[in-house]
Design goal:
This protein is an alpha+beta fold and 287 residues long. It has three domains: 2-31 and 251-286; 44-124 and 202-245, no CATH class; 130-195. The protein has helices at residues 2-29, 109-113, 211-215, 252-286, and strands at residues 35-37, 40-42, 47-48, 62-65, 71-74, 87-94, 99-103, 124-126, 132-138, 160-161, 170-176, 190-195, 200-204, 219-222, 237-240. The strands form four sheets. It has a seven-stranded mixed beta sheet, with no helix packed on it. A four-stranded antiparallel beta sheet has the order 10-11-9-12, with no helix packed on it. It has a two-stranded antiparallel sheet with strand order 1-2. A hairpin with a 5-residue loop joins β4 (62-65) and β5. It is elongated and about 95 Å long. The protein starts with a helix and ends with a helix.
């Protein structure tokens, strides 16, 4: 009876283990399937560098996933600022409107803005509400604005210092887009950019045009040139398949591996017990 129970347990756990393993193999065959980093689903035109092949994403749409599950985009830098940080953190991707919502990891986007080479990037800064102008004024200029952020008016009608972006050579000021013209810092101060928030900002892209696929509840991909008679460029895309909710959590693979290890251990344990039972039974028969 004990031997029958051990045999039953052995084949039960073995069948569970065999059911899990093919599922992993099948997922690996689809190298361009949507992936998750944190709470963000990453699919074409983006690709996740750690998991997707080069052909899975559009040129310049490379994302990476940090150890703490932050989705990272590296923006191109100007030649003169090659030593500066080009990392921004993506907090949301709106595939329908082709928008990226991002934040500066240092909480001071305007500090790095001049170092970004947006002309070499497929993404452009998207201006939203509550826009502020940012000006850079040399310390040796005659202009002296408000010298403390604590003294700034509530709606920034006057230029207010931005300490995180200022250094020994320049003082950076923020001023409301609705401020009177005569309140703006004069030359030699220069305008850096206009954004709505020091930390959070938005980027959009115009190519490839995959937003219409979202409205059709379909996925987007490169068009397979080998299966058509038309003269197509490598940049043309098409809608295909069905847009489904990706339900796997970010640590699904880890849980799967742990489950596999546990089941493997149980199979080994049952096998050892079964072998011991058989050997013990044979010894008893001899006596």
């Amino acid at each position: 009876m004990a031997r029958l129970v051990l045999f039953s347990l052995f084949f039960f756990f073995l069948s569970i283990l065999l059911q899990i393993q093919p599922g992993v193999g099948a997922a690996d065959d689809d190298e361009c399937k949507p992936e998750i980093c944190g709470d963000i689903v990453i699919r074409f035109p983006f690709r996740l560098i750690e998991r997707h092949s080069d052909h899975c994403g559009y040129h310049g749409f490379d994302l990476s996933c940090s150890p703490n599950y932050q989705t990272i985009l590296n923006l191109p830098l100007t030649t003169s600022s090659s030593s500066s940080s080009n990392v921004v953190v993506i907090t949301h991707i709106d595939y329908g409107s082709q928008m990226l919502y991002a934040e500066d990891p240092d909480g001071c986007f305007v500090k790095n803005f001049e170092n970004f080479n947006f002309s070499a990037s497929p993404f452009q800064l998207f201006h939203t509400y509550d826009i502020f102008y940012y000006f850079s004024c040399p310390h040796d200029s005659s202009y002296k604005g408000i010298n403390s952020s604590e003294l700034c008016p509530p709606y920034y009608e006057l230029p207010c210092p931005v300490d995180c972006a200022s250094d020994s050579t320049q003082q950076v000021y923020a001023v409301s887009i609705n401020a009177e013209l005569y309140n703006l810092p004069p030359w030699p101060c220069k305008s850096i950019t206009k954004i709505s928030d020091l930390k959070h900002f938005s980027l959009n892209w115009s190519e490839p045009m995959c937003g219409h696929c979202e409205s059709l509840q379909k996925l987007c991909r490169f068009r397979d040139i080998n299966n058509t008679q038309h003269n197509l460029t490598e940049h043309e895309t098409e809608c295909y398949g069905e847009l489904k909710q990706v339900k796997q959590p970010r640590d699904f693979s880890k849980k799967l591996i742990i489950t596999g290890y546990c089941l493997t251990s149980l199979v080994i344990l049952v096998g050892v017990s079964l072998t011991y039972s058989i050997l013990t039974s044979d010894d008893n028969k001899r006596y």
